[in-house]
Design goal:
Blueprint: E1 6-10, H1 15-26, E2 30-35, E3 54-57, H2 63-73, E4 77-80, H3 87-92, H4 94-114, E5 120-126, H5 149-168, E6 171-177, E7 180-181, H6 190-202, E8 209-211, E9 217-218, E10 221-222, H7 223-235, E11 242-244, E12 250-251, H8 252-262, E13 271-273, H9 291-297, H10 305-317
Parallel strand pairs: 1-2, 1-4, 2-3, 4-5, 5-6, 6-11, 7-10, 8-13
Antiparallel strand pairs: 9-12
Helix pairs in contact: 1-7, 2-4, 4-5, 6-8, 6-10, 8-10
Bound molecules: NADP nicotinamide-adenine-dinucleotide phosphate and ligand F7E.
């Protein structure tokens, strides 16, 4: 019997890591996930598959750990999803955000190179790199104009991934993913903040929702679809970079309207604008052109805006324990 393929995931405790781990387990991989030591539980999104995973401690800030993990695991596929991924927070802790997002990527790539591991590498690049975008929609050729420390760090990570591909012949790819959401989305990102508030209002536990800029427009897709796309990128014959998106833009206001009206509520009765949630520099409009991924990987989103909002509201309507919050 052929040996199982080994995948190594940073960021396995996050939204995307949990879906990717499920997909890889379904496809017969041995899945290694890197987790950070925490004084409290941080594995709620993967507890249901805990017994099937090999979890190892590490941190993208710790280069010697990266080397040791690559040397001992010798994976066939590496997915680098670990990051301080909150754009607003990146203005508060810019150095840390860039250390993990940018230098962390370099540490991992260099550990693979130094240890002579012949694996395929996926980098979680972001539509935030387009920032103040020069064209609409954005594709793989659109120039970058990052508008936050988070996005500037991701631009470095994008280029260092391409550099290791060009300089060392590594199979290293960038998935340039537009916003993707799910019932497992972190509660401080705007979509989940809204759907959780809808649930809490329906249960009589909350009577106000404080938000920032309602005019920003995003291209919101479903996280599991995007992790299917990430996997496909590593199965292609040649390494390349791909945009994953839905091609539809909606404003935060439209998301509010959709989520509240689905629950029979009027968002205007609850929403207060709070300057704390505005960003020093905003990204006004992102919408992606995924035709390359469609043509070369046969990838397409299966869940569109309306269905996504409803899926998240349905999840958050139910009262849930802390463990169930992400499942
Ligand atoms: P997420 O839910 O915020 O998860 C981030 C993951 O990174 C968590 O597992 C977190 O671990 C881990 N992490 C944080 N700091 C780390 C460190 N110092 N060392 C190692 N791991 C660390 O993010 P996500 O939405 O799943 O996104 C996954 C990746 O895709 C991120 O790189 C993000 O920047 C990128 N991305 C996301 C989107 C999107 O719309 N979701 C779009 C484009 C790109 P803890 O649980 O211990 O905090
Ligand atoms: O903000 C506006 C905010 O934090 C979306 C990350 O996964 O996707 C995500 O980054 C928009 C922004 O996501 C609130 O100003 C209004 O315009 O949900 P978000 P993001 O910044 O687009 C990209 C692709 C990533 O790569 C990132 O890792 O919503 N907004 N009021 C608000 N946003 C938040 N968080 N909270 C508010 O109260």
């Amino acid at each position: 019997m052929a040996a199982k393929r080994k995948a190594f995931i940073t960021g396995i405790t996050g939204q995307d890591g949990s879906y990717l781990a499920e997909i890889l387990l379904e496809r017969g991989y041995e899945v290694y996930g890197m987790i950070r030591r925490s004084s409290s539980f941080n594995t709620a999104r993967i507890d249901h598959i805990f017994g099937e995973l090999e979890l190892v401690f590490g941190d993208l800030a710790d280069g010697s750990a990266m080397n040791q993990l690559m040397r001992t695991i010798r994976p066939d596929e590496v997915y680098n999803l670990g990051a301080q991924s909150h754009v607003r927070v990146s203005f508060d802790i810019p150095e840390y955000t860039v250390d993990i997002g940018a230098l962390g990527t370099l540490r991992l790539l260099d550990a693979i190179r130094e240890e002579g591991v012949r694996c395929r590498f996926y980098q979680a690049s972001s539509s935030e790199m387009f920032g103040q975008a020069r064209e609409v929609p954005q594709n793989e050729e659109t120039p970058f104009h990052p508008r936050s420390p988070y996005a500037a760090g991701k631009v470095f990570a994008y280029w260092i991934t391409r550099n290791y591909r060009e300089a060392y012949g590594m199979y290293a790819v960038n998935g340039i993913l537009f916003n993707h959401e799910s019932p497992r989305r972190g509660p401080t990102f705007v979509t989940r903040k809204i759907t959780r508030a809808v649930g809490a209002i329906l249960r009589g536990e909350q009577d106000e929702l404080r938000l920032g800029n309602l005019d920003a427009k995003r291209d919101w897709g479903y996280a599991r679809d995007y992790m299917e796309g990430a996997w496909r990128m590593l199965q292609a014959e040649e390494p390349d970079d791909y945009v994953l998106a839905t091609g539809e833009a909606h404003s935060v206001r439209e998301f509010l309207e959709e989520a509240f009206s689905y629950a029979g509520l009027d968002w205007r009765d609850y929403v207060k604008i709070d300057p704390r949630y505005f960003r020093p520099a905003e990204v006004d409009l992102l919408v992606g052109d995924y035709s390359k991924a469609k043509q070369k990987l046969g990838w397409e989103p299966t869940v569109r805006f309306h269905e996504l909002v409803r899926m998240m509201v349905d999840h958050d309507r139910e009262r849930r324990t802390t463990e169930e919050h992400y499942l």
